[in-house]
Structure formats: C-alpha cells, structure tokens
Amino acid sequence: GLQDKIHLVPIDLQNRPAWYKEKVYPENKVPSLEHNGKVLGESLDLIKYVDANFEGTPLYPNGPVMTQHKVRFKIHWAIWPLGSCSRCSVLDVRDPAKKEFGEQLLSHVDTFTKELFLSLKGDTVQQSSPTFEFLENALGKFDDGPFLLGQFSLVDVAYIPFVERFHIVLAEVFKHDITEGRPKLATWIEELNKIDAYTQTRRDPQEIVELFKNRFLPQH
C-alpha cells in the first residue's frame, strides 16, 4: 500500500480543531486530502482522485480489462485507508453497458446514503428496505462476478462503507439482518470481507453502534 508515503492526520468529528478549517479545508468537512499543494474534499471525489493519481492498477481504468493485479485505494469513514488488493479484478470499460451502469451507480451514491440516514428518523427497518432492495437488484445486473459491475471496481468502494455501518447498526439495535431475503447482497458483503485492504480498516462494530446511538438514535 501507500501507508509509508502519506501522513494521516486524525480529526475529532465532534470537536474539529480550528486550524483545520482555517488552514486546511475551509468547508471544515472530513475527510480531505492535501496533495501537490491543493486540498480536495468529498469522499467520492477523493476516491476518484486517489485512483487516478497514485500508483497501482486503477479501479476505473481507461484501458482494457486487467485482473489479479494490485489495486490501491484510500477510503476512511467514507473512505478506506490506503491498501492493496491482490485478488481483485477491475472494470472493463470496453463494455459500454458496464461503463454506463457504473456511472449511474456512482451518481446515485448521495441519494443512497441520504435515504439510509433519513430512515433513522422513522421506522428504520421498513424505510431502509427499498434502499437495500435497490442494491440487491443492482447486484443482479451482471453475472460475471459477485460485485456491482461483476468485477470489483470503484463502485463497490463507494457503497460498502455505508452498507457496512447500517448492516451492523440494524442487526445490533433493531435485530434486523439486511441480507435476509437478499442473497446477492449477502454474497457481495461476504466477498468484500475477503479483501484484506478492506477488512484491515473496518471499525470496531461496537464503536459504530455507539456512534450511531449518540448521533442519530438517542432514544435507543
């Protein structure tokens, strides 16, 4: 991975230091990335930037399909830390259907996450169900692999952090398994859990539950 080539600075989301807004990122959002004299924010934009500007086989390449190569990416909280994936395939953009569907899914990430967080204000299990059904249906689009575009790609990277958190919270707080009746979603999560670069950076489930209880579910 690129851990030895970058400097990670942890930010307390509940008490962000003044210097971060004043000297680093005026919008005061986390995460952000400083590289080559400029600072970027927004998780999905950072994923794309790291994919395009750092070494390794890209997760959204412009060339022919490549498999079983190392892939490096950064995402933490909404982005995983930089890591490598030696068992992943990447998107074959020679397939126009995959390219188009991948772009549609990436443009839907904000809507997907908003729907999940809005569900916390009502009947969470019922209101979040259509959101996970969307993912189940999307996973059936291609049959050449268990991921959203068949092969592992940047699209999976964009969705899994949010699915991971809600999978844990709904199971622990609401005693509901989001994979029940959704075999493709269950397989997708299972296959992603085989990727070391992802599993090494997963947060402690109890920390996620406590965070959600404190910020979104005080009644629980």
From TrEMBL:
Q: Which UniProt keywords apply?
A: Transferase
Transmembrane parts of this sequence: none
List the Gene Ontology MF annotations in alphabetical order: glutathione transferase activity
* GST N-terminal domain residues: 1-58
Q: Which CDD domains match?
A: GST_C_Lambda
Q: Which Pfam families match?
A: GST_C_2, GST_N_3
PANTHER family of this UniProt entry?
Answer: GLUTATHIONE S-TRANSFERASE L1, PROTEIN IN2-1 HOMOLOG B
Q: What is this protein called?
A: Glutathione S-transferase l3-like protein
Q: State the organism named in the record.
A: Trifolium pratense (Red clover)
